[in-house]
Amino acid sequence: MDYKVNYENWLTSPYLRADGLAELQKIANDEKEIEYSFGAEMEFGTAGMRGIIGYGTNKMNVYTVRRATQGLAEFIKANGNGAMRRGVAISYDTRRNSKLFAKTAAGVLLYNGIKVHIYPEPRPVPMLSYAVRKLGAFAGIMITASHNPKEYNGYKVYGEDGAQMSPEDTEEVVKYISQITDYFSVKETEIDEIKPIKKLGLLTVIGKKLEKSYYDELVKLTLSKKAVKAVGKKIKIVYTPVHGSGFVPVTSILKKLGIKATLVEEQTAPDTEFSTVEVPNPEFKETLSMGIALADKIKADVVFGTDPDCDRLGVAIRNEQGEFVALSGNQTGILLLDYILLRLKTENTLPANGVVVKSFVSTGMAKLLCNNYGVELVETPVGFKFIGEKIKQYEQDNSKTYVFGFEESCGYLRGTHARDKDAVVASMLFAEMVCYYQFINKSVWGRLCEIYDKYGYVLDATDSIKYSGLSAMADMNDAVAKVREKEVTQIGIYTVSGVRDYLTGVRKSDGETTELEIKGVNCIYFELLSGGFICLRPSGTEPKLKVYYSVKAKDKAHAEKALAELKENFAQILA
Fold this sequence. Notes:
The protein is of the alpha/beta class. Helix content is 40%, strand content 20%.
């Protein structure tokens, strides 16, 4: 790809926006920036596309959004008039240009005669997933870069089941996208304001009625009404939406249940710069620091926050020393899983064919819990769309009843109202869980300690190795390929009891091979005889090579020592 020619074509195009012209003129003498912006096209995968906001074929802008949407439009038209009439549901978060990109996508679809259902204000991923299902839309678009830094934005596409679009359909959309070589050729119907276009009859604005039905669905999932009624207005919880789209839905559902939460007021308003945090990722304790400071002031024991598109929940709780500890996504997942199974079993409502679904890189503690409660555990590749696929499968064949799903990256879903991570329902359940334990004179931290005492201390951690440049994705995949070629039987003092190659779908152990249910995923998974694992996986959305570690020990001190040794020895294998 001749990036210099591409740069000149954009720079001299009469269709380039004025702000785009100014931006490209500024980098006229920056060869490296021109190469990055125009040396590749944004990759459109099963998670859509995500990148730095700016002008160029390799960045997020109205032209790359138009091109992607035209590809989606062609796919919809190929599925007939029925698909066009069912249309596309659209939502967006509070990031830079999110509303602009949402209106751009809507305009392209309208120009192609495809119906559009759009939220008038920022609404989270789960509400978009719900809208696709409730409205019977053929597809959905969510404008977001999730928890990425402020410089990023992205474009997620959903299928008619409310889950992120399947690999097969995505492949078809990509074929249509790749046929569009002139980024300025895509036309759109201009939308100044998000309001119904009566003369076309194709644009509808999603209203309060659908939002109310979403909250009503969540209320059905509550598990401790008596406890909430008794202490819901007395408990002290701090919540922050971190300037994102979670503010309205999370506060609405808590109010509906009668649970009091104190808000971090400075972080409730939408802010494209996320000016009060370094990164809007609630997984990090630093992101919750203002909430923790407020919690100390009002003597609260729990702080939770949601990311910009409100599909991830981050939590910090006070330990026995009175200090706040930021829970990992695995720890929050274990607490929610234990709470859900405990309450269902206590109320004799745990389905006999109940199933919990998690990604295979998420904590091994889930298996111990599920065994204790007599519930089946199923594993999927990384990506919540695969959990969504399992929900769809179980609904179609009635083989199992979905109870809960989670990923270590702070993504959780109870209920089948949505087919993606839902931090609204996760926030509701966590707040309800706080009420329940306070009602029986316990704390969330106390319950976590009880879980460790019963099952052993499982410590999970994730490292990310950053890559950069146009070849970042290829370089990450090459790194995994090199490890795949090595015969690894020992990692320091840890014996490797089995190696799962999720690319070929084969597990090797003691010279024997067995087929895995999952294949076609570029991951290497080392099973440790001690009960832990190491998994090496290139991220599908960021230029990061991820290494997942899980170790089991008798207590935290021994687990931390074991983890440090494991990391040091695995680094030698990666070298």
